[in-house]
Specification:
Order of helices and strands: HEHEHEHEEHEHEHEHEEHEEHH
Number of helices: 11
CATH architecture of the largest domain: 3-Layer(aba) Sandwich
Strand content: 15-25%
CATH class of the largest domain: Alpha Beta
Protein name: BMP family ABC transporter substrate-binding protein
Strand order of the largest sheet: 2-1-3-4-5-11
Membrane topology: Lipid-anchor
Largest sheet: 6 strands, parallel
Oligomer: single chain
Structural class: alpha/beta
CATH topology of the largest domain: Rossmann fold
CATH superfamily of the largest domain: Response regulator
Number of strands: 12
Number of domains: 2
Subcellular location: Cell membrane
Keywords: Cell membrane, Lipoprotein, Membrane, Signal
Organism: Propionigenium maris DSM 9537
Length: 330
């Protein structure tokens, strides 16, 4: 009888131990971090800023064990609502894309002190917000230098979404780079404006044709989805060339897009998510320039022969001077 009692006791202990181990295993299994991203106006398919952000997040989703979702706002009024929705739903990290997220995020972030936020392309000074910035002037300087080398009319154009300090960094860097490579060049700037400056291709095409008619033969557009209008104009007009923006747009009109000023939102977001998953994401501002790989020209896939080895070598030399500090893009 004693032996039976002892055996039963031993079986119960083994069962309890096994249950305890299963509970421990279940308790130790890490929950996937939930990450939500609010894109900017224009949404996916802009072949620009939003597409680059999405590509970086999808790469992070493939490499890190995260639960990722996104939304595409259709108006500025949607920004605050979507940010609030993600935070209220208990997402661990909320990513906001674009400079016009500044005011909405400043309103939402203080209401959710335990939620981490990342904003790309603007600065939000809150203790739970990490701001990812780019040295826009350095990137614009490089494509401006190429334009200065390549123009045959000594007149080039810039199309901005709106006339404001943030976007004028592109205009100023582009102008400085063009004048560095070609002191006799003229840069003419126009702006899309209107109710949807970053998703109005028709207006951007109209401005592109206006610049062409005034003598400009190369145009750089920093206007999000509106830039599709520049590509249409370039495709339809001989002797007119484009500079792409944000992502690699060289294939949009093969041989007619000299290069693209790439803001590597994909790389910077990928690095940011990696830091978050590792528990190393800090609030404050991180700036990515030429040296950090945050901005760059594209690979000249369709225009190497057109540009020529001598100009490409000059452009590389200019890039090295900017990185070393010999040339300062103020």
């Amino acid at each position: 009888m004693k032996k039976i009692v002892l055996l039963l006791g031993l079986l119960m202990m083994l069962m309890l131990t096994a249950c305890g181990e299963k509970q421990a295993e279940s308790g130790s299994k890490a929950k996937k971090p939930k990450i939500g991203m609010v894109l900017n106006l224009g949404g996916l398919g802009d072949k620009s800023f939003n597409d680059s952000a999405y590509a970086g997040m999808k790469r992070a989703e493939a490499d890190y064990d995260i639960d990722f979702s996104y939304v595409e706002p259709t108006s500025l009024a949607d920004f605050s609502q979507y940010l609030d929705d993600y935070a209220m739903a208990g997402y661990d990290l909320v990513v906001a894309i674009g400079y016009d997220m500044q005011t909405p995020l400043n309103e939402v972030a203080p209401n959710y002190p335990d939620t981490k936020f990342v904003v790309v392309d603007t600065v939000v000074d809150q203790p739970n917000v990490s701001s990812v910035m780019f040295n826009n002037k350095e990137g614009a300087f490089m494509v401006g230098a190429l334009s200065g080398m390549m123009t045959k009319t000594d007149k080039i154009g810039y199309i901005g979404g709106v006339d404001m300090a943030f976007l004028n960094e592109f205009r100023d860097g582009y102008t400085m780079g063009a004048e560095y490579a070609n002191p006799g060049v003229e840069v003419v700037s126009l702006y899309v404006g209107g109710v949807n400056p970053f998703n109005d291709p028709a207006r951007a095409k109209e401005l592109s044709l206006s610049l062409k008619n005034s003598g400009a033969d190369i145009i750089f557009a920093a206007s999000g989805g509106s830039g599709r209008g520049l590509m249409e104009a370039v495709n339809e007009n001989d002797g007119l060339y484009a500079i792409g923006m944000d992502s690699d747009q060289d294939g949009e009109v093969e041989g007619k897009v000299l290069t693209s000023m790439m803001k590597r939102v994909d790389n910077t977001l990928y690095k940011t998510i990696g830091n978050f998953v590792a528990g190393n994401l800090q609030s404050g501002v991180k700036v990515y320039g030429l040296e950090e790989g945050g901005v760059s020209t594209s690979e000249f896939k369709y225009t190497k022969e057109l540009i020529g080895e001598e100009n490409l070598a000059k452009l590389k030399e200019i890039e090295e001077k900017v990185i070393s500090g010999e040339v300062v893009v103020k």
